[in-house]
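Thread: zinc ion complex, take 2
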Amino acid sequence: MFCVECGAEGPTYDGLCAKDFTRKHAVVRAPEVLDVERCASCGSFRFQSGWSKLDRDLAATRLFRERIPVERPFERVTFTFVAREEDANNLALTVKAVGRFQDLESVQGFRTRLRIKPSLCDSCQKQRGRYYEGILQVRGEGRELTPAELRTIRTFVVARVDRNAEEGAFVSRMEEVHGGLDFYVSTNALGKNLAREVADAFGGSVTASPKLFGQKQGREVFRVTSLVRLPPFRVGDVVRHKARLAEVVAVRPFVVLRDLASGEERRFKAKEVRSARRLEAERFDARIERPASGEAIAIHPESGEGRPVTPRPKERTARAVVVWTSEGAFLSALPADASKN
Ligand SMILES: [Zn+2]
Ligand SMILES: [Zn+2]
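Output below.
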């Protein structure tokens, strides 16, 4: 075959040799400037398909593909570029576009500018407006959450939401109320998922109550409050249950109470022990003394006070973890630091 332009012999493309073909056909229509909005809050870029969190170089490549028209007959165009930052929002780009036609690859170099326009993405806009749809409530069953529990749950929820941030999930507000926590979250589904995750991680039960909130485009809009109730007790608590003193040795899937006088363990559903009441108690590793009377006496490590231990520890036990209440000292089945946090 001969090139109709220069007469060179060899493969031709639409009658032209490769050199003349690429000279006559541009790969793309190079723009002088590309403008893109970037969210000033989360850094997402706005593409035709919506907001997306990409790093700047990936965002630029995606913009080229979206915005730069490919000239026929080239196809499967790929872009590479080098950026020089004029300032944070203005980049001078040197771009190479490689287009393909049959077995031909043509490279076109051009310069353009990327101008970044600070803006606010949809999800940040909603967040700033304190927008929320669902509410996640975390409460203790018949008790206030401890400061350590409040802290742990707050961290847990924020970490879960961050992991979802790509889909625009957010917590617009967090409040500590009635010894528990309220999270105002972007969607009802997010509230429900978080409730399940909190219950899986910390124990407890989940209930959801939708409330009609209003109408949006003729559709009823509900706000769902998802409530997690954490177990009434924590491992290490000392409780009075039906006139017996017991220590809590497990809270899920069942509450297990160990009778302090007999050492016997029984398991209950959370609602079966709703009437149990927590008592002030200490738990520590105590020295055991055995006076001539044959009793075993636990010695309080700080006050030095002695109290008979129930049930009586084995002969020759010199130390034991005991539960110390106003009613006496009892052998514990838990480590001395079981209820510290
Ligand atoms: Zn030619
Ligand atoms: Zn944003």
